[in-house]
Amino acid sequence: MAGRSGKKESKQNAKQGKGSKINDKGVLLVPPPKSIPNKDHMQRLNYLFQLSTFHTMVGAQDKSQALSRMYMKNLDLIQKKTKTALTPGMKRQICKECHRVQIPWRTVTSFIANESKKKTTQNQVLVLTCQCGSSKRFPFGRNREYRTHVEKDNLVYMQK
Ligand SMILES: [Zn+2]
Predict the structure, then answer these.
(1) What confidence score (pLDDT) does residue 75 get?
(2) 21: which strand partners?
(3) Where are the domains of the chain?
(4) How many whole angstroms from 43 Cα to the centroid of ligand 1?
(5) Residues with CB under 5 A from ligand 1 (ion)
(6) Higher pLDDT, 61 or 125
(7) What is the distance in A from the centroid of ligand 1 to the CA of 133?
(8) Residue 4 binned pLDDT confidence (cut-offs 50, 70, 90)
(9) Within 10 Å of residue 8's Cβ, how many Cβ atoms?
């Protein structure tokens, strides 16, 4: 009997794909990827982003953040050339106009705008205004539970 049930289990595992399992809550557990494609590009982009953030935080006397912006411009060029996708969180922190890192109180100011007549909370928009004058608008009032795919909690990787 034990042998039979074992066979059944192995068949089920084969159906679900390589090494994936479903836990008791019904969440599909996927093993972490064994290799990262374009690892050197990823590392370079990550390094440039951290360098740019560092120089924005440290170089307070440089009002135009020239060095920091140059690194970020470089990141943008490499990202486009290699067609590497940035995570939404990273993308939101870069100004499209001047390539500044968006750091609150240093390079960006924020306020909540509501341009609707009834001033309902549904129409609240978070406005981030960069030093260069351009602004990003996030209509968070419509769906406060909105998460991008990467930010979702149910992305569970198996523990090894
Ligand atoms: Zn800007």
Answers:
(1) 95
(2) 29
(3) 39-141
(4) 25
(5) 95, 97-98, 100, 130, 132, 134
(6) 125
(7) 6
(8) very low
(9) 9
